[in-house]
Amino acid sequence: MSEEKKERRVLAFLRSLPGRMIVSIFVLTLILGALLMSSILFLSINAQKDSFVQNAQEQANTLARAMGLDPDYLEIKNIFANSVLSHGVVYVELAGTIGHGESFKKAKDSHLKFLQDTEFGGHGDNVYYLSEPIRDGDGNLIGVLKIGYDELRLANQAKHMIHRSVVFGLVYMWALMLITASLAMRLTNPIKTLQKACKEIASGNIDKELNIESNISEISGLGNDLEHMRRELVASNKKIAANEARYAAILDHAAEGIFIFDKQGVIHSFNRSAEQLFGYRADEIVGQNIAALITPHGVFEHSKDHLKNFMQMEISRLIGRESELTGFHKDGASFHMALKVRAVVLEEKEMYTAMAADISERKALMDHLKSVAEPDGLTGLYNRSSFQGELERLVDLTKRTKQPSALLYIDLDHF
Cα–Cα distance between 195 and 182 in angstroms, integer? Predict the structure, then answer.
């Protein structure tokens, strides 16, 4: 695995809920745990040091009082010689009139030198030195006891305590992170299930029932709401499907040829009557241009402006009214076609619905009636009614084009 992939995976983990929880717990434990543990260790070690100093002072005071009451020099020498070897005392020195003025000094190491201490570890020599006056039964000063206690044992105990505390803290932190990771997974698994369900619903897979199991009320509530939404979508889709089926049935059984096309002229829907009218199957014509229906074969490929003009100019004229156009069958045959166009909005797009019908027979009948009604039956010339209609047509043409026109009327005498 490349370094870049590793970095992406690490970043993805840190951005996830388990990653954020684990990092948060780690940081909080590291900061608060370190402060708490260091405070406890500090108080505990200082308490041990104070206890050590207090015990040393009490022991030295007891020894000094005992020597003052029974100043047997030889016995005292034996006591301190044994103490230096076995009771944590590393330095003893007697001075004064006790023992007929003979001085006594015993040290575990020859380099030890008495330096009065006021606190534990005062001189950094691992020995706590203190002095106690020796007084007789009458309270007279007869000597001085100088004694040193080994601090190293307590210092080692403090180090071991720190080491054990650090190990305990690391184990505690690791256990806490494992517990956090377990809780995070219990949180994220239902959320991932919800996320997957949302993707399936968004992609249209809404038939599978959701079953989100979680002890967290918010997550279970969200799962219930999503399941309710899924059921509403299923019900809504069934209604839409039923409406679409009715709409398709109406379209397929309509007498007129009905087709839908967009602003670019691309056909999107073609009903059964339109298939019979134009000779194209729906799967053949859907996706093709409307030019195939209103333009002679082979013309549209060489005249793109025709469709552009139709879509920009003629469509607006055709909307909301019935117009007559020439339609073209798949085999190339043309026919007279009545076309009604309406603008609609489908899926937030402007579309056009067209209803087409073959009016060739009706057109032929109208032409026949016109040919019978307009010419004179005897002469074959246009009659007065034809003249009046042509006059109205030219007047309208003159108004639109602003161009002068003339109409000649010749009356035959005695006719």
Answer: 20
